[in-house]
Design a protein that fits this description.
The structure is a homodimer of 724-residue chains. The first copy, chain A, is of the alpha+beta class. Chain A has 2 domains: 346 residues, Butyryl-CoA Dehydrogenase, subunit A, domain 3 (Up-down Bundle), CATH 1.20.140; 246 residues, Butyryl-CoA Dehydrogenase, subunit A, domain 2 (Beta Barrel). Chain A has 27 helices and 14 strands. In chain A, helix 10 packs antiparallel against helix 11 and helix 11 packs across helix 19. Chain A starts with a helix and ends with a helix.
Chain lengths: 724, 724
């Protein structure tokens, strides 16, 4: 590797870090490699509170019985993943969230941390495990009471009862409240009658529904005594385990239940997703998961939560772990993608630069740095925010911090984090795959299959766009509350302030005052840009201003008809979602900045601070039009952002391998041919061949170096090289 | 469908189009549907010069033997695609580019047009056909002379001889000039010795190499009499067709030749990509494809092109059809993706708006319009630029317009078009897939498998980043020429002008003058933004300014050492590639604008003009930071761009189905369950069920509508609906 590191010597990093790290002010310090201890320290920080469980699970994920086999036909892949789940269940790897009294560990946070690392083996294994224990099992745990637990959890925990989580319908995905399936109570027999009234109400996309599931938690409108009490969950046996399995490995359906196979999908083909429909299927009254709603034998409905709306929200909020764990899995996969692409990018050479005999390492190209390093920085932000989210999740579900407000904050943060991180993972995987060229397209290098599997993370457990709208609405609500608490005089003052402030932003007044500062040196500007207070102000200001503008516009429409109100919301929807995204980015920045404080190794802290700065400044770059149009940054300052980013990318170049090494994913986890050093070996062999040819005089003379060739104007070759 | 159209009534389109289309100035005209004739006219325009061949091929692509079968195991998919190729060859569907005297049609443009539509059947069929006839066969045609044609083309045209195009090596993809394979001439036996000197020189990613290829066109450094004459192409038999096939369907390798299977890929798994290596393999002297380089029996090398650099460029430029056809295939696939997503988006409903009993159609959401309509506009731009490119390609290869300059222009335009269109296709497929939610992830709805197959289009036949760099270098060369032609006084004046201009852009002078105009009404601004001259100026200005700035910076470094020059280039690489992208977008805009002129139906012309405006203005929006920072648009004007785009998106809403219908892809081409009207039928059934329940009084009362429920504060339900 030393040849690649050499070429990355930082050329312009003289003055900019002076003053922040005393004693480390000479230019060469920028390239001082991280020590092994520093890399370990970063690894501990990234792996977070449940580092030990996380690493244990990462090792479990290298089990040859669990890992993804490219090209396996769908039926074999499904069988293989089912067997993998049984192995995990038998080894008690997947039950940590369940009660200790039932063989679990009452450890919600640790359970999610270890679950997330299963994606290393095969995302199908992770998600099928998620269906069984994180959705089907968790629904029984969180929506049921002790009698439900005693009756249903043992079979779920051991996988004796594989099950489906039957919430989504063909006609209703994100809008769960509107599902069509009904559960009508019949006091005569003390049974619920589960029914699918029309095609759009078929349950769809359910893991375990096509083949392996023998029961399901079915969400349906609970109707008793002619009143619809809203969506509740019911435990429904769906397949007859007393009969023999068919040739696909499925038990026959129980009477009144139909199943369809969703068939081949864009990824996750180790999971047997399918549809379910119910024709007046009767289940005992006690199969209602009755923590948040009970029906007495006579049909009298009762609930500990009086408001149907709040009850619905509370029930769904118990299932937030799906989003939390997808957020973490997205972080894991992004780290893997970058470990593969950066390893290859620091070895692979293509085209010559200054020296005609030595080809340039990809990572020494400006474009390659631009493609990979900002995504590395963002991946760290994603991981640190995930660590905060997981702590918060554990707080709520362990009961340590479980107020209504805690649950709402958790819900909002999970929605923001999951949508940003799953889109980021797709973007990172695709960029990594393209950065590896043709190699990136081979399944042997892992990136394409991971991308195919991760695709659906953007729309399941909540469509990302819908989730961001949820975040946006929460921001509006909070904003409304903060203004509602003012007295009338305060409101008048506040509105006047806002009006003045908005005029300020629309005219160049604020810009004018900033432009005075802009006449200072570029180095001075760079100094300011790496000031966390400046970064925070820029990121915060954008969220707050956008929310405020939207709120004021919506407020203006509040006196209109329902149609006008709906139209006003529609006109603000795109910007509301953008505001929610900005909020998520601010949360990522806060988490990254918070994480820096814990780093003790000075060089590690410095390199990670550069990466935090890259995250902050490329985020600001992405939204530069907003900052300039709204007078937050002058044109001159906007240019400084980009040139400072470029400087940071160069400065980070020698440290990239150390950073991805700190992720803790070795060859056995990455399972990518190009991330094993094979490319460096091939390059070395080729270079040795060429230099030996030259040394022994066996190398042919190039036509353009012959007398005849020189006369013919061979100079064009260089310029045309890229033409293939 | 009428209920969806109703809800899209344009609410604010009163004054903005007045004046451009006399007689069509009443507000309701905006929503006047396109007539059948207008839709056909648009279809003709989009299908271009070879519309008839294109439609014929589109029909061929519905042949059940050709279409993609999701989930087929790789070996079966490979067999199926080979059989599909034989069927195409037998029906003379794929030989139109070959000489009439040999059974072809001497129709290069028509050949590509019909080839592009094969992607409708299965991208593997398209690309395997491309390998056989567009690369392997085209190399023999364009790089060989008559004796090569007579000897090799008949077997290639009938598929009796499936072959590989062995250019890329493990160690060298885009940098073809540096490949390691050698072809050393031996005058004793009058043979070339083909040799792979090290592992990095193995040929890789070659379609037909793993199984089906029995010959290959091998690119190698031609060495004779101790001189390396650069890369040439050789026809090399690789498998022994006299021996029986093995169980995989492959003949055994000929002596000295090794093959490896690339295995499973991210897509295109109907093609048997693989590697080849040669251990001193001897072929006759006459197997050199000798149009651009001949070796006499005694080893004397000669070429009609004296300069080795120009010779290399000329040889590679004959293979530009790969890029041209990928550009066209990207357009086809983007159109299919939008036809699927827009059909579904105009039927699918989710969440209620103003009316609590009627759910809102997805396409009536601001975010949905933002996601799909700008991509529809860009797809049209891609198609129109492709039509221009294909005309240009036909001009060169039919000999009608075949100068050096024509070839260089073709090469540059193909590089720009292909990189922008293939990235656009991936972006569009992914957006379409997410816009269709879980349905989008099912193979039955086509989007995921098309995306998987199209992935590699971004890096094969030239890595998109490398291609854009090629375009950027051409822009710099052209710029250098235009300044070089000036006399000294002119240069001085020019530099002074530029300096003044740049100062102007860095200070707010130009902005100040514009800001006077900005105080006019917003309608007035919108008027200006839809003036094609204003759009062109904005797009052109950006390309020219970026190229100029880069050129001036590079010029400043020209006196430095090679290391300094390389560093200067590296520092400008990201921006050069961005300038190339801007150039491509300008070309797309020009093509779109040019195409508008041909439309005779006034309403079609108007709707297409809105779409051109959406393309122009969203492109400007994407680069808004540049426009504002560089003083081309004021902050006020920048806001107008976005609000005008929003207005256009609403105005286009009722016409979306007509536009995608004009693409000419019916159910038989799209083969997507959700694009068949099935969703509308399900919605209708559900709505009928609910209204009948209400009518008959069978519907249960909602808990929140009971006296008890109202007391409990049911108002929260609406706000929380999105929480699942």
């Amino acid at each position: 590797m030393e040849f690649t590191e050499q070429s990355a010597t930082d050329k312009d990093g003289t003055a900019t870090t002076a003053g922040t790290a005393p004693g480390l002010t000479t230019p060469t310090d920028h390239a001082t490699p991280l020590t092994e201890a520093a890399i370990r320290e970063l690894g501990d920080l990234l792996d977070g509170r449940w580092a030990e469980l996380r690493r244990h699970s990462r090792t479990v994920a290298t089990d040859p019985d669990l890992v993804h086999v490219p090209g396996l036909p769908v039926p074999e892949h499904r069988d293989r993943v089912l067997a993998a789940l049984q192995k995990l269940a038998d080894a008690s790897e997947v039950q940590r969230a369940f009660p200790t009294r039932m063989g679990g560990e009452d450890n919600p946070g640790g359970n999610i941390a270890s679950f997330e690392e299963l994606v290393v083996a095969d995302p199908s294994v992770q998600i099928k495990a998620g269906v069984q224990w994180g959705l089907f099992g968790a629904a029984v745990l969180h929506l049921g009471t002790e009698h439900n637990h005693e009756e249903f959890l043992p079979g779920i925990m051991t996988l004796e009862v594989p099950g489906a989580f039957a919430m989504t319908e063909i006609g209703h995905g994100s809008d769960v409240a509107s599902i069509g399936t009904t559960a009508t109570y019949d006091p005569e027999t003390e049974e619920f009658v589960i029914h699918t009234p029309f095609r759009a109400a078929w349950k769809d996309y359910l893991g375990n529904a096509a083949l392996h599931g023998v029961a399901a938690v079915v969400f349906a409108q609970l109707i008793s005594r002619g009143v619809n009490h809203g969506v509740h969950a019911f435990y429904v046996p769906i397949r007859d385990t007393t009969a023999p399995k068919d040739e696909r490995g499925a038990y026959p359906m129980l009477p009144g239940i139909q199943s369809e196979d969703d068939g081949v999908k864009g990824g996750l083909n180790g999971i047997d997703n399918g549809r379910l429909a119910f024709d007046h299927v009767r289940i005992p009254r006690t199969n209602l998961l009755d923590r948040y709603g009970q029906v007495a034998p006579d049909g009298e409905y009762s609930s500990p939560i009086a408001s149907p709306g709040r009850r619905f929200f509370t029930m769904l909020s118990t299932l937030v772990q799906g989003r939390v764990s997808l957020d973490g899995a997205a972080a894991v996969v992004s780290k893997m993608a970058l470990a593969i692409a950066i390893r290859y990018g620091t070895e692979r050479r293509q085209f010559t630069g200054a020296d005609p005999d030595v080809e340039t390492v990809l990572m020494d190209y400006g474009t390659h740095r631009r493609r990979l390093i900002p995504r590395l920085a963002r991946t760290l932000a994603v991981q640190f925010l995930h660590n905060d989210l997981l702590e918060r999740f554990h707080g709520v579900f362990s009961g340590e911090h479980d107020t209504d407000e805690d649950r709402q904050d958790l819900e909002t943060l999970a929605a923001a984090a999951k949508s940003l991180s799953t889109w980021h993972a797709l973007d990172t995987l695709q960029t990594a795959r393209e950065a590896c060229g043709g190699q990136g397209f081979l399944a042997a290098n892992r990136l394409v299959s991971l991308r195919a599997d991760m695709d659906v993370y953007a729309t399941f457990e909540g469509d990302n766009t819908v989730l961001l709208q949820l975040v946006g609405k929460r921001l509006l609500t909070d904003y409304g509350r903060s203004t509602a608490q003012m007295d009338v005089a305060g409101q008048v003052r506040w509105v006047a302030d806002r009006a003045g402030d908005m005029a300020l932003h629309r005219t160049p007044l604020r810009r004018a005052s900033q432009s005075i500062r802009d006449w200072g040196s570029r180095a001075r500007s760079a100094e300011e840009l790496r000031d966390p207070a400046v970064q925070r102000e820029l990121l915060e200001d954008r969220v707050e201003s956008m929310v405020e503008e939207i709120a004021l516009r919506l407020r203006a429409s509040q006196k209109g008809s329902p149609v006008e109100k709906a139209a006003a919301f529609d006109e603000n929807q795109v910007e509301l979602i953008e505001a929610a995204r900005a909020h998520g980015e601010l949360m990522q920045w806060e988490a990254f900045t918070g994480a820096l404080e814990a780093i003790t190794d000075p060089q590690a802290k410095r390199v990670m601070t550069w990466l935090r700065d890259v995250f902050a400044l490329t985020t600001i770059e992405d939204h530069m039009a907003w900052y300039v149009v709204n007078g937050r940054l002058s044109a001159q300052r906007a240019r400084t952002v980009t040139s400072y980013v470029e400087r940071l990318l160069k400065r980070l170049r020698p440290h990239l391998r150390s950073i991805v090494d700190s992720f803790g994913y070795g060859d056995e986890h990455l399972r990518a041919d190009i991330a094993t050093g094979a490319e460096a070996a091939r390059q070395a062999e080729a270079m040795a061949y060429h230099s030996q040819e030259r040394a022994t005089g066996r190398a042919p003379v190039s036509e353009k170096d012959t007398a005849k060739g020189r006369a013919k104007g061979a100079g064009r070759v260089g310029g045309q090289r890229a033409s293939a």
